[in-house]
Design goal:
The structure is a homodimer. By secondary structure, the first copy, chain A, is of the alpha/beta class. Chain A has two domains: 4-190 and 297-386, Alpha/Beta hydrolase fold, catalytic domain (Rossmann fold), CATH 3.40.50.1820; 194-290, Rna Polymerase Sigma Factor, Chain: A (Orthogonal Bundle). Chain A has eleven helices and 14 strands. Chain A has helices at 4-8, 134-147, 161-172, 191-205, 222-236, 239-245, 264-279, 282-294, 303-306, 328-340, 363-386, and strands spanning 20-24, 28-29, 35-36, 39-46, 56-60, 86-87, 92-93, 98-102, 117-118, 123-124, 155-159, 179-183, 314-320, 345-350. In chain A, the strands form four sheets. Chain A has an eight-stranded mixed sheet, with helices on both faces. In chain A, strands 2-3 form a two-stranded antiparallel ribbon. In chain A, strands 6-7 form a two-stranded parallel ribbon. In chain A, helix 4 (191-205) packs antiparallel against helix 8 and helix 5 (222-236) packs across helix 7 (264-279). The first copy, chain A, is globular, with a radius of gyration of 21 Å. The two termini of chain A are 28 Å apart. Chains A and B meet through helix 4, helix 5, helix 6, helix 7 and helix 8 of A and helix 4, helix 5, helix 6, helix 7 and helix 8 of B.
Chain lengths: 387, 387
Amino acid sequence: MNTDNEKTGEKGSVSIVETKYFRTDSPFILESEAILDELTIAYETYGSFNREKDNAVLICHALSGDAHAAGYHESDEKPGWWEEMIGPGKAFDTNQYYVICSNIIGGCKGSTGPGSIDPKTAKPYGLDFPVVTISDMVNTQKLLIDFLGIKKVLCVSGGSMGGMQALQWAVSYPDMLASCIPIATTCRHSALQIALDEVGRQAIMADPNWKNGRYEPGKGPSGGLSLARMIGHITYMSDKSMERKFGRLMKKKEYGYDFTGDFEVEGYLQYRGDSFIQRFDANSYLYITKAMDYFDLQKNERLCDSFRHVRGVRFLVIAFSSDWLYPPYQSKEIVKALKLNGIDVSYCEISSDYGHDAFLIEFDEETTLIRHFLERVRHNGKNSTAR
Amino acid sequence: MNTDNEKTGEKGSVSIVETKYFRTDSPFILESEAILDELTIAYETYGSFNREKDNAVLICHALSGDAHAAGYHESDEKPGWWEEMIGPGKAFDTNQYYVICSNIIGGCKGSTGPGSIDPKTAKPYGLDFPVVTISDMVNTQKLLIDFLGIKKVLCVSGGSMGGMQALQWAVSYPDMLASCIPIATTCRHSALQIALDEVGRQAIMADPNWKNGRYEPGKGPSGGLSLARMIGHITYMSDKSMERKFGRLMKKKEYGYDFTGDFEVEGYLQYRGDSFIQRFDANSYLYITKAMDYFDLQKNERLCDSFRHVRGVRFLVIAFSSDWLYPPYQSKEIVKALKLNGIDVSYCEISSDYGHDAFLIEFDEETTLIRHFLERVRHNGKNSTAR
């Protein structure tokens, strides 16, 4: 697909897009050995296949993301969550690549999750939905990739939990992957990361409207979910970015000497919490954070051993200096383990004050790094085919 | 008071102690201009006055502390919260100093607070209790110091919110103070610190048992208070100390694939939350965190201007390298502002992995620093009297 942007080199948008649905009635076996009798995966695609179908890029989303990574849904004012990174002339250049993004299993944006109807009961699964893992997310994406007729993915990438999926892809399906760009992520959740997820879950489960997960649509534990999101938001920013954005700015002219909230930062958190409950399901929040906590590429072996079959995949690992939720040292552990296997890996720590959120903000540096990396991967791929 | 410890130089305990109560029926005017018609302040003292009554050391406690800083209450197995620092031969050496610690106004350990009986209604104040500030805490301590007949306090010290009180003492009553040791603290809560307090408060206020603060004793918002404490606990530790203590250690043999908690760190947080609700009042938690959020020595002027009347006071400022709740840069801001006023200040950043909790753990280094500092303050005081 040639576009104006391709000629001018300017960045553009993939414009109007639609979410599509992949469905299968084949039983899907989860890592827990639980079985789902049917499975739906919501996904979007941007750009076109080349003749060889070897230009596919799979984007994996984070906790609160969805399949709508770029472009605009008809009548929506806001674009997809990584619009700045996906499109003509952008990091994941839709003039060159066929970009795919799917909603994770366990989510609440079109893929099968705890809010879906359980065929056995004709009611929402609730907590009867089996606990899913990062591997399960990747295995559903593998079904989708097969369905799309792709033999080898040029690149899988994502930030935060998206990065975990990218890493899991490399470990689970190294032969189906040319390259991997994990961003602001880790190969295993630390005690601190588990602890932060757990307080979010406790906030939801303590809400009387949660009812052990058996709430009716629209009558869920909105207070608890909002609080979980507020806690999350604090961890996505940095001390410095919060200080710059809010400092001690006040909502009121003077101290109110009450508990209605005096400071801008309090109002902001409340706003972020309130808007989150409009678009997210509390049970999905439980399932997705649990999947992250269970994520551990290392398990009982050395991390470098987990990567021993990954040799054919090339890596670009990106971290952000002020990210205290997924600190750069965790990315460096990944890099070291890859290096110990002689794997081709580039590492870049982007200097940023934006904390973990930086992967959704620092587009310029990410774009430059990713564009160059993908060009190298593509050309080396062609060269090695030619040889 | 000569003790065996004084002769041998060994460290000992002040042994059995009792909480005392200072009461006044004079109206107490708060910073908010609200008035309390009566006031009780719980306090303990350890050691004895010297002849000149110039050996008093005032210890200020943090969020969840109380007047019981050292020694043992009759039949109690656990000593006071800073037992390792206060006693014969210790940092605050009761062979030399008359050590005082009082429970803050707004607290729930014997001093007047939201759980106290409102004389107007003969019921607990609840949210009718006026919002208190760090200044108010210090002003009640001033009443107590006057009542004890002390003209000048040798030293005021405390960690975290205790450090805020110590700093406020220096600013409010510089002529009554020879020295000040603020530990792991700040001169103003940052946006991050306010945000973390706010999610704790939201957790409490979202609990249906909170009932706008009008809960009966024993029927309070224990779930919300427990959650607030869990959030707090995460911030008191460091990534490294959590990793060392828990890592990915599991409570179960294998992943449970449910939401009952798989990891040791989850069980630990739950335990800390559950034990906190046995000993703390939810409304007090709201009032005390609000006081911290309001704390701002700087307000609309430059910080160094806030300290311009403090010249006669000597300072030892202590921070801990891994403390991300009250990071060392905040202590350095205090030091700089003091230095700009030509004030005598020593700064020490203790290298520790324990995060904010370090002020309750790193006793050896704290002890050495504080002992030497206090000796210097005491001897310089004598010298200047002799001159």
